[in-house]
């Protein structure tokens, strides 16, 4: 056998660790079962909890506050139960250490998981609570888990710690490439939370854990990496399930567990807690800082939007974690392995840090992209006693007076606030349609604004973060229809053209949506033109374009040529208020202001508005839910002002049926909005169509065809879409036909609404169950199915 060098004379023999107690077969089986159960059950509950959250959101139902606390409690009980006997009973120190690590991790999951009760819109508050709770947990776990370091530790802990830093930077790299940072405070809090979570991982997987896998003479680094790495991976998965609000934890379930093997290899080379803290802390920083949990959502339906890129970053992170485990295992865990020098490890870490910076600035989405605040002031304009007059001239006079009063009120009441915002160098945008100001700032700015006497309330104005590559619009592949479509025939619009000779000429419809493909053959001729017919507050595009496809489809159903539009002789103007299917109250106001008083490109809405150029009718196939920052009242002054100006606002009821009371996202519930539900080819109300009752008002007002409606899509083609979004522009087109047939009706909103209701045909209500009636059929069908032919004849009469 091999003989080592003799000890110097008089030097005592160092104590040797006791031989490792081999685990009994039943302990091994129990550990394998408990580990597999912990991984499977935790992954299923985390994914299931997120899906439940998303289904509630997509269905338009209120967020269930107790969902995540209940999920966490069940996980703690059902995962902790098999871990507890492992932590107490086996004779094997390694099995007991494994059970204690898993039990501690699941208790940490319970503590941190409860924080998901904080609404996602308050992300800064969540991150602050996460940082504080994780730091406290790290302190407690570290105190309880102290153990002496095993003897004969390798002599290069500094170099190994730098390798831990390098591993964390490698895990962060995909997020810096594919993600985007939020605001300054949000990013700083994410960094604090990541640091606390790294310290927690270091305390959880400290010497007291690893020493149980290295006991024996000689130490067995391969056993440490394979067995200890598996045990550490399960513990890290439980920790990952606790990190981030709903959705942000899902990528960590993939990327953190393989890091357990890398940590085992680092520990075999003499790493302490610092290496684990750096590797895990930087690893969790990616999802916490570079993604917004509100954007990991099924609402972003485009196949290459935030959920796609989060999945891509998670896949890349998984590959990096596996490569780290293999590389560190080969480099550090072989019996003859020797860690690199501190200089070499430093060069590796520095190179990765430089690469991270280059990727973030070059290939990534540099800068800060935080949310903003919408400050709604107490005083809103008095719009009583407006001038009266028939037809477009009367409408224009009212619109001009409404515009003047709104601007005067905003200028007078916002002056002090805007002066203070300039003094503090806070970027802001004033609005007049609702007396409000959008301000860049976080919770501290929000608290200051909320305390001002002129401020009624402060809302979050949601902003989506940029993507690594454009999502791309939905494109049409079908050819132009050879004849008027089924929906056109169902409401009798084709008879209006052929028998009454009315096509909507002389009327302009305004669209606030994802944009419009202005070059589409069915839409190009209908664009009003001039320097005040297009506005894009998102990207500042100079001419009509559509990054999504939704807006092109809805405008086509209202005024498109070639048999797709209800009023093919009408003109259209457009504004972009949706970006990747999400908006916010400020951008909705941008477009509604533009519709009241269009202004030239680069103009000032306050001074350059032209109310005489306002479109007569607005089609709005959107709603502003709480996830976008709206409360039920925020857009109420806007629709009231448009109504006072004689502009007909037509809005989609929403696609959150068949639940009763699901018409709840502004502007659909407002009494001065013409709210439209959807029916299918059999005149049955579509299951997805939102319905009443709505407090104080009957909604929807009426219904129109909304299933498998063919219309224009970007690129010159055609395709079918379904939703109340598709039904709404058809009603706007019917109003255009009515006002084209009788110009004296222009601006007479009460009379027009009554004629529409009086001329509907029956529609068949549908319900979620046989016992649910939504308070009556009128809360499902409204007045009935719009009839263009009867409505135009009534308007002429």
What does it look like?
Keywords: Hydrolase, Membrane, Protease, Serine protease, Transmembrane, Transmembrane helix. Belongs to the peptidase S8 family. It comes from Micromonospora deserti. Pfam families: Peptidase_S8. Residues 504-766 form the Peptidase S8/S53 domain. With 797 residues, the protein is an alpha/beta fold. The protein has two domains: 25-366, no CATH class; 486-759 and 768-796, 3-Layer(aba) Sandwich (Rossmann fold), CATH 3.40.50. 48% of the residues lie in helices and 9% in strands. The chain has helices at residues 25-58, 67-88, 93-113, 123-144, 157-178, 184-204, 207-214, 221-240, 249-255, 259-268, 273-290, 306-332, 342-363, 391-423, 443-450, 486-490, 493-500, 550-559, 585-596, 636-644, 724-741, 749-758, 778-781, 788-796; strands at 180-181, 365-368, 372-377, 428-431, 436-440, 455-461, 508-513, 534-535, 571-576, 617-620, 648-652, 674-679, 702-705, 709-712, 718-721. The protein has a seven-stranded parallel β-sheet, sandwiched between helices. Strands 4-5-3-6 form a four-stranded antiparallel β-sheet, sandwiched between helices. Strands 1-2 form a two-stranded parallel ribbon. Helix 3 (93-113) runs antiparallel to helix 4, helix 3 (93-113) packs antiparallel against helix 7 (207-214) and helix 8 (221-240) crosses helix 10 (259-268). The longest helix has 34 residues, at 25-58. It starts with 24 loop residues before the first helix and ends with a helix.
């Amino acid at each position: 056998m091999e003989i080592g060098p003799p000890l110097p004379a008089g030097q005592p023999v160092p104590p040797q660790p006791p031989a490792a107690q081999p685990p009994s077969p039943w302990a091994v089986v129990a550990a394998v079962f408990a580990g597999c159960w912990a991984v499977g059950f935790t992954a299923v509950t985390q994914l299931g909890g997120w899906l439940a959250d998303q289904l509630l959101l997509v269905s338009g139902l209120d967020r269930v506050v107790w969902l995540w606390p209940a999920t966490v409690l069940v996980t703690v009980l059902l995962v902790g139960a098999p871990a507890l006997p492992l932590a107490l009973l086996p004779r094997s120190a390694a099995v007991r250490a494994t059970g204690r690590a898993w039990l501690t991790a699941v208790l940490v999951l319970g503590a941190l998981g409860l924080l998901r009760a904080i609404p996602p819109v308050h992300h800064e508050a969540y991150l602050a609570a996460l940082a504080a709770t994780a730091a406290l947990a790290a302190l407690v776990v570290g105190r309880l888990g102290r153990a002496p370091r095993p003897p004969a530790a390798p002599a290069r802990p500094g170099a190994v710690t730098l390798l831990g830093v390098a591993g964390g930077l490698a895990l962060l790299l995909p997020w810096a490439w594919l993600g985007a940072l939020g605001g300054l405070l949000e990013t700083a809090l994410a960094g604090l939370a990541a640091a606390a979570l790294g310290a927690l991982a270091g305390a959880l997987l400290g010497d007291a854990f690893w020493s149980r896998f290295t006991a024996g003479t000689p130490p067995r680094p391969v056993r440490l990496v394979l067995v200890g790495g598996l045990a550490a991976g399960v513990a890290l998965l439980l920790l990952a399930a606790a990190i981030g609000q709903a959705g942000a934890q899902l990528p960590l379930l993939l990327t953190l567990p393989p890091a357990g093997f890398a940590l085992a290899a680092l520990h075999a080379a003499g790493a302490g807690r610092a290496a684990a803290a750096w590797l895990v802390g930087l690893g969790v920083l990616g999802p916490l800082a570079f993604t917004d949990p509100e954007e990991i959502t099924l609402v972003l339906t485009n196949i290459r939007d935030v959920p796609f890129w989060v999945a891509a970053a998670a896949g890349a992170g998984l590959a990096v974690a596996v490569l780290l485990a293999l590389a560190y295992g080969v480099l550090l865990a072989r019996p003859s392995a020797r860690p690199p020098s501190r200089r070499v490890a430093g060069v590796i870490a520095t190179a990765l840090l430089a690469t991270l910076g280059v990727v973030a600035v070059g290939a990534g989405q540099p800068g800060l992209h935080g949310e903003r605040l919408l400050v709604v002031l107490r005083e809103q304009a008095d719009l009583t006693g407006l001038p009266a007059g028939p037809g477009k001239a009367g409408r224009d006079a009212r619109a001009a007076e409404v515009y003047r009063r709104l601007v005067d009120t905003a200028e007078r009441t916002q002056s002090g606030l805007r002066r203070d915002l300039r003094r503090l160098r806070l970027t802001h945008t004033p609005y007049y349609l609702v007396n409000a100001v959008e301000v860049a700032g976080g919770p501290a700015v929000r608290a200051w604004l909320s305390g001002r006497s002129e401020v009624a309330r402060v809302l979050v104005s949601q902003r989506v973060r940029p993507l690594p590559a454009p999502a791309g619009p939905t494109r049409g592949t079908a050819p132009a229809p050879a004849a008027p479509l089924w929906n056109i025939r169902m409401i009798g619009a084709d008879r209006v053209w052929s028998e009454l000779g009315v096509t909507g000429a002389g009327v302009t419809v305004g669209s606030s949506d994802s944009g419009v493909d202005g070059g589409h053959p069915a839409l190009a001729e209908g664009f009003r033109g001039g320097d005040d017919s297009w506005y894009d507050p998102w990207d500042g595009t100079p001419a009509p374009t559509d990054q999504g496809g939704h807006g092109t489809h809805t405008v086509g159903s209202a005024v498109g040529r070639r048999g797709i539009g209800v009023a093919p002789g009408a003109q259209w103007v457009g504004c972009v208020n949706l970006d990747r299917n999400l908006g916010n109250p400020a951008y909705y106001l941008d477009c509604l202001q533009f519709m009241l008083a269009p202004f030239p490109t680069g103009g000032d809405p306050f001074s350059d508005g032209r109310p005489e150029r306002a479109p007569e009718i607005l089609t709005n196939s959107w709603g502003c839910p709480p996830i976008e920052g709206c409360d039920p009242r925020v857009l109420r002054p806007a629709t009231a002002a448009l109504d006072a100006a004689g502009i007909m606002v037509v809005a989609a009821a929403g696609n959150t049926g068949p639940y009763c009371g699901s018409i709840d996202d502004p502007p659909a519930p407002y009494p001065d909005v013409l709210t439209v539900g959807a029916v299918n080819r059999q005149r049955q109300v579509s299951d997805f169509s939102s319905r009443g009752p709505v407090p104080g008002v009957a909604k929807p007002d009426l219904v129109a065809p909304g299933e498998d409606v063919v219309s224009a899509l970007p690129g010159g083609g055609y395709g079918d879409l379904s939703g109340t979004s598709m039904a709404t522009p058809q009603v706007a087109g019917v109003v255009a036909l009515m006002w084209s047939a009788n110009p004296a009706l222009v601006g007479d909103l009460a009379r027009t609404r009554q004629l529409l209701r009086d001329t509907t045909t029956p529609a068949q209500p549908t319900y979620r169950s046989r016992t649910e009636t939504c308070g009556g059929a009128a809360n499902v069908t409204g007045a009935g199915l719009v009839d263009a032919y009867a409505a135009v004849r009534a308007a002429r009469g």
